[in-house]
Automatic annotation (TrEMBL):
Top EC group: lyase
Protein name per the record: Deoxyribodipyrimidine photo-lyase
CC cofactor note: Binds 1 FAD per subunit.
Source superkingdom: Bacteria
Enzyme Commission (EC) number: 4.1.99.3
Record-linked Gene3D superfamilies: 1.25.40.80, DNA Cyclobutane Dipyrimidine Photolyase, subunit A, domain 3, HUPs
Organism, scientific name: Phytomonospora endophytica
One matching Pfam family: DNA_photolyase
Binding-site positions, FAD: 208, 220-224, 247, 250-257, 346-348
GO BP term (any one): response to light stimulus
Coiled-coil ranges (or none): none
Domain Photolyase/cryptochrome alpha/beta per the UniProt entry, residue ranges: 2-123
This protein's UniProt keywords: Chromophore, FAD, Flavoprotein, Lyase
Length: 393
């Protein structure tokens, strides 16, 4: 009898999850497993979001006759142990691009496990479209976007009809394992919550192209944390007939940074453009004021306080606050990226560091010397001061 361990990572969903669908199609028994790696420090809101997402996934798997094991430890060691208990060496995993994800996959193989990987973290897998002029990735967005749109996209996967665990296996309560805090009505985690958010937003998304930069308007999808943890499939979003093309273009930015990270794994630590790193200033006091939203520059402080309160920040505010830190204060983009990584629900290496480097002028921006003047940005994107008033009172 064939048994496969399903190692869930950033794919916490049952719909359009090729890893889950493919394994369930070929194996009589599967062991759905999530491993909480203590090496990854997560802020309480992120643990809360993850715990809710896992609880929702567990419910879905149970409805199909299965369950979800949630264990803590070094992923490869935990997987090897669970696989041995299930009498198998086969592991299915959604492919991911960060240095951490690649090291995890290698470690699984080093533990003697047979690993099969599947797409699902991006619309188009990193490395699937390559520049005709050569090179292992696209460095500029617009040509990537054209190639991305023209590339063949995989067909979405159906959720499995049923799931069977090996005898004697039972699931775990993710909230207990993660010790997570109480739920948040603002952005509850999980596939169902993502679907609810999409169903709420999609019918009013026609104005996205006009409204997505307006700071005070809830004009963007706020799906980024769900995309980060894979509670919603990026492919399902990109092919949803209700969403506008301007939104699909943003999903392409997400894929773009994933293929950059796949080719340049040091994106979190080193300037992407050779020799682009500045002589950054060292001013811990200014950094702390920026983090606390106490710079005295209204729109910057409003953005930073939204981050503290919601674990999310409007994209325009992210650009303004990041530009202020790096180009006005002259502080190192790595310090800003680290603070965002700590506080954002949606933080991931590809999008966070890709965008920080773009803003700091060390990354993929074709105009690396551009600087956002916060006063002019506020006049343009918060003309009535509603956003600033909301966060500064
Ligand atoms: C300094 C800085 C740091 C950022 N850090 C992150 C991060 O850690 N994680 C993250 O997901 N996004 C990050 N972004 C990109 C962007 O700000 C967020 O994706 C967006 O604000 C999320 O809100 P939304 O879901 O309502 O976006 P929407 O406008 O509804 O866009 C839909 C989706 O497209 C993707 N997307 C949109 N804009 C971008 C972009 N510029 N780059 C890559 N993907 C994009 C996101 O997955 C987003 O959920 C950062 C941007 C900046 C300037």
């Amino acid at each position: 009898m064939r048994t496969i361990v399903l190692l869930f990572t950033r794919d916490l969903r049952v719909h359009d999850n090729p890893m889950l669908a493919s394994a369930c199609a070929v194996a009589e028994r599967v062991v759905p497993l999530f491993v909480v790696d203590p090496a990854i420090r997560a802020s309480p809101p992120r643990r809360r979001f993850l715990a809710e997402s896992l609880a929702d996934l567990r419910e879905s798997l149970r409805r199909l006759g299965g369950d979800l094991l949630v264990r803590e430890g070094a992923p490869a060691e935990v997987v090897a142990k669970v696989a041995a208990e299930a009498g198998t060496r086969q592991v299915a995993l959604t492919s991911d691009v960060s240095a951490y994800a690649k090291a995890r996959e290698k470690s699984l193989r080093d533990h003697g496990l047979e690993v099969r990987t599947f797409p699902g973290v991006t619309v188009v897998p990193a490395g699937k479209v390559l520049p005709s002029t050569g090179g292992d990735h696209y460095k500029v967005f617009t040509p990537y976007w054209r190639a991305w749109e023209a590339a063949p996209w995989r067909d979405p996967s159906e959720a499995p009809a049923s799931i069977r665990l090996p005898d004697g296996f039972t699931g775990d309560d993710p909230r207990k394992v993660l010790g997570a805090a109480k739920t948040s009505p603002l952005m509850p985690g999980g596939e169902q919550a993502a679907q609810d958010r999409l169903d709420d937003w999609a019918p009013r998304s026609a104005d996205y192209a006009d409204l997505h930069d307006a700071l005070a308007v809830d004009g963007t999808s706020r799906l980024s944390p769900y995309l980060h943890f894979g509670c919603v499939s990026p492919l399902a979003l990109a092919t949803d007939p209700r969403v506008p093309s301007a939104f699909v273009r943003q999903l392409c930015w997400r894929d773009f940074y994933h293929q950059v990270l796949a080719a340049f794994p040091k994106l979190a630590t080193e300037a992407y453009r050779p020799n682009a790193d500045d002589d950054w200033a060292d001013d811990p006091e200014a950094l702390e004021k920026w983090k606390a939203g106490e710079t005295g520059v209204e729109v910057v402080d409003a953005g930073m306080r939204q981050l503290l309160a919601e674990g999310w920040m409007h994209n325009r505010a992210r650009m303004i606050t990041a530009s202020y830190l790096t180009k006005t204060l002259g502080l190192d983009w790595r310090a800003g990226a680290a603070w965002f990584a700590e506080r954002l629900l949606d933080a991931d290496v590809a999008n966070n560091c890709g965008n920080w480097q773009w803003t700091a002028g060390t990354g993929n921006d074709s105009k690396p010397y551009r600087r956002f003047n916060p006063v002019r940005q506020q006049a343009r994107f918060d003309p009535d001061g509603d956003y600033v008033r909301r966060w500064l009172g």
